[in-house]
Amino acid sequence: MKDDAYKPFFHFYVYNAVLAMVFGVILLIIPWISLPLFLFILAGFFIADGILHVINIIRFSRALPKKWSRILRSAAGIITGIIILIIPGISAIVLLYILAGWYIYVGIIEIIISSHYKEILTKRRYIVIFSMISIIFGLFLVAWLYLYPDTAVVALAWFLGLSAILWGLGYLIYPLRFSRLFSGDEL
Description:
This protein is mostly helical. It has helices at 7-29, 35-59, 67-86, 92-115, 125-147, 152-183.
C-alpha cells in the first residue's frame, strides 16, 4: 500500500536526525566550547526535539496509537531544555545526571512506542536497538559520574557529541525501514 500522506512523517525523522547529528559534530569539533554557550545549544536541542515530536503528534493524531507515550516523550525533552535554560549555573555533574535520566527515559519510552506498532511493523529491531543504545548510554553516564566525577565537564561534550550522532543515525534508519511498509515491502 502506498500512501503519500505519510511523507511528512518521514521528513520529521530526517529533520530530527540532521538536527541531532549537527549538534553532535559541533560538540566533537569544538569540545572547548564555553559552558554557557554549550548549555544554550543543549537546551535548544532538547526543546526543538520535543517540539518536533509535538508537531508529529498533532499532524498524525488519527494515525498514532496511544498518543500518551509520545506526549510524555515530548514533554521530557521540552522540560529538560527549559530546566537547563532556567538554571544556567547548573553544574556539569547535575547536568550529566539529568542527561543520563533523559537517555534512559527516552529509550524506555521509544521501546513502548514501538510496541504500539506491532501490527504494522513486523521487525522493530532498529527502533529497539537504538532505544537500548540510549538506555546503555544513560547507564554508562551514571557509571562514569560515579567512577570519574572530576572529568565530568570534559566527558560531557564528547559523550553528547557521539550519542547525538548515533541518535541521528537511528532517526535516519527508522523512516527508511518504515517507508517500505508503504511501498509494499515487508519491514
